[in-house]
Design a protein that fits this description.
The protein is α+β, with helices and mostly antiparallel strands and 109 residues long. The chain is built from four helices and four strands; from the N terminus they run E-H-E-E-E-H-H-H. Helix 2 packs across helix 3 (79-88). Bound molecules: zinc ion (ZN). Zinc ion (ZN) is lined by residues 51, 53, 56, 59, 73, 77-78.
Length: 109
């Protein structure tokens, strides 16, 4: 059994994912880094990604290599920022999918 004790990272800064495609989503999230360049996983298998929105009640979430958790986090906890994000990205798959579901529901018998 692995030792579950995770020591606190004390001297860290927040860094963005290098080369992230979805820059407007990454405005709201960042990783912890101890050297300002590399992502610190704080002793976990996967690093945590942190919500940077002020007064977030649950800023830490596991990062699985995609933005699904982050988009869900915005939807659930920050509807205002989510609307801003979606408004800025009307051609993203998320927005397209939503439109698709709305249309599908509308024509469903
Ligand atoms: Zn948040």
């Amino acid at each position: 059994m692995a030792d579950a004790t995770v020591s606190e990272v004390e001297n860290f800064s927040y860094i963005q994912l290098p080369g992230a495609k979805n820059a407007s989503l990454w405005n709201y999230f960042a990783f912890k880094s101890t050297d300002g360049k590399t992502i610190c996983n704080e002793g976990r298998d996967k690093p945590n990604v942190y919500c940077r929105i002020a007064a977030c009640s649950k800023p830490a979430m596991q990062y699985y290599g995609n933005t699904t958790n982050m988009m869900r986090h915005l939807q659930m906890l920050h509807p205002k920022e989510n609307a801003k994000y979606l408004g800025r990205n009307m051609t993203t798959t998320a927005a397209n999918r939503l439109t698709f579901f709305l249309k599908k529901d509308a024509v469903a018998d």
